[in-house]
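Reading group handout, session on sequence-to-structure problems. Before we discuss, look at one worked example. The prompt was deliberately terse, the way you'd type it at a terminal:

> structure Bifunctional riboflavin kinase/FMN adenylyltransferase

The input record follows.
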Amino acid sequence: MQTFSSLREAQKFGPTAVTIGKFDGIHRGHQALIAALRSAAAEHDLKTVLVTFDRHPDALLNPANLKWPLIGPKQKESLISAAGLDALLTLTFDDALAQQSAQDFVQETLVDALSAKIVIVGEDFRFGAGGAGDVALLHELGQQLGFEVRVIASATEAGLKVSTSAIRELLDQGDVAKAGKLLGRVHTTVGVVEHGLKIGRTIGFPTANMSREAEGYLPLDGVYAGWLIADGERYPAAHSVGINETFQAVPRLVESHVLDRKDLDLYDKIVTLEYVDFVRPSAKFDGVESLVVEINRDLDKIRNILGL
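And the output record:
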């Protein structure tokens, strides 16, 4: 997959089939757009391009209400590449883009730069300064400028509309299993393992501490059953999200204990943590003995959840 960070870089790539959006989770709704994009491109022998932004528009337009993203830029690029698209165009969401009219955005991005012949968007798609452009305007501009517009209905799961906000709410409740259904995959955190306080090792449960620069939204503070992936190997694991109140409070992070393994050296490796199911909320214990008892209970539950 080719990656572009400006319209200039993307020029002469077309003709294309294009989808546009924040794509801040690559959830089942986004996956439906990508599938429709690939199908349309195959019908008309076009190259596929996904257009997105380097940050959520709220980072510029409404910073007080900016939410943490479900996935980071590296995760996003990896997921889009795995979906089989030809190119990813990531536009810088700055004042100039925020103030660009809907008509100018279509002309400069879709027509002049990408030579778009088919544009695929969700039913709630908005574009241009102040979100002035909607699906109806996009249809109208497409008729004027020579591209077809296809609108994809929102995905649903058990009557719930699939959206980034709904997934974030589930993660905030610790419901990683249901969040995974809306995502269409297990939720993950990806990052480098760094040196921590090594307290877990002293009580017989060594943990891999994820860097705070790791990508992937942290769910509710608590313990989760899941998998740790390193160097292509998958290990059953207990993930703990929180601030470690029992010993020494630290900034919020996730650490992972690989079940029945004390020989792994994961320092400085990039690992992926998959969250399968919630085990219990985080708690402060009155000492090491009670903590060890609870950890062993957790591990028994995790073995059962993972079918070990």
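Points for discussion. First: The longest strand covers residues 270-281. Second: The chain has eleven helices and 14 strands.
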